[in-house]
Amino acid sequence: MSSDDDGPSEQEVRDALRALRDDDEPSLDHVLALVVASVVHESPLVPGEVVDAISAQWAIEDDLANGGMDQVVWNIGHERARQVARSFRAVGAIENADLIDRLSAVLEQQQQQPDGDAEPVTRFMAFRRAGSGPFFGVPELEAELGEVVLEFVLERVDSLPDPDGPLARRAQ
Questions:
Q1: Could you report the per-residue pLDDT of 13-50, keeping only the tens digit for each?
Q2: Sign (positive/negative) of CA torsion 144, 62, 13, 84?
Q3: For the stretch 97-132, what's the b/e string if a residue is b when 16 or more beta carbons lie within 10 angstroms of its beta carbon?
Q4: Which one of 6, 34, 63, 70 has the lowest number of neighbouring Cβ atoms within 10 Å?
Q5: 68 to 43, 78, 88, 100: CA distances (angstroms)
Q6: Measured at the alpha carbon of residue 75, what is the angle toward residues 73 and 76, in degrees to the nearest 5?
Q7: What's the chain's average pLDDT?
Q8: pTM of the entire predicted model
């Protein structure tokens, strides 16, 4: 990527589009470059579902690394977690979406129960036990999402902008 704060250069965007459209060894890196570049372009460079799913992944990655998927759901709450699950499901990351929905239901149910004066750590550990965490037997999010996002884009490659056409950036 280019060294400026605006993401990939125009040439890098065109190269990524060309690689995806021309089946020239397309990779997840090409898709991610287009997701980043979509922020500064007037028209989306990849389907909106891809931007939403990758943005959701980036938004939860610290909590995921810190404590796993149950930590994510606990920290962002059941409503936001369900939004994340919908974005993952939209691109085909079904196993992680199902896990997030299941954990969201456990959290919502737990929050409806009186917890007395339980400390936050005690409440979290009760949630973790109720959700059967922290090891869930589903693919790592990065692996599942990476695979399905690339497939999702490749199945819709005709909707991508022409790599030799105009790529208007948003006015700043």
A1: 999 999 999 877 899 999 999 999 998 888 889 999 99
A2: positive
A3: bebbbbbbebbeebeeeeeeeeeeeeebeebbeebe
A4: 6
A5: 35, 15, 16, 11
A6: 70
A7: 91
A8: 0.89
CA 100 to chain centre: 12
Q: Look at the chain and count its residues.
A: 172
Q: Is the pLDDT of residue 3 over 60?
A: no
Query: Can you tell me the distance from the alpha carbon of 40 to that of 169, in angstroms, rounded to the nearest whole number?
Result: 6
Residue 152 CB burial class (10 angstroms; 0-12, 13-18, ≥19):
buried
With beta carbons less than 8 A apart as the criterion, state whether 103 and 124 touch. Answer: no
Nearest to residue 47, comparing CAs of 170, 150, 163?
Answer: 150
Quote the CA–CA distance of 162 and 152 in Å, as a whole number: 18
Task: List the one residue out of 70, 95, 82, 81 whose CA is nearest residue 147.
Answer: 95
What six digits make up the tokens of 42?
């007037």
Compute how many other C-beta atoms are within 10 angstroms of the C-beta atom of residue 26.
Answer: 18
Rounded to the nearest 10°, the torsion over CA 6, 10, 15, 21 is: 100
**pLDDT, tens digit (0-9, with 9 covering 90-100), for 155-167:** 999 999 999 998 8
Structure tokens at 80: 């936001």
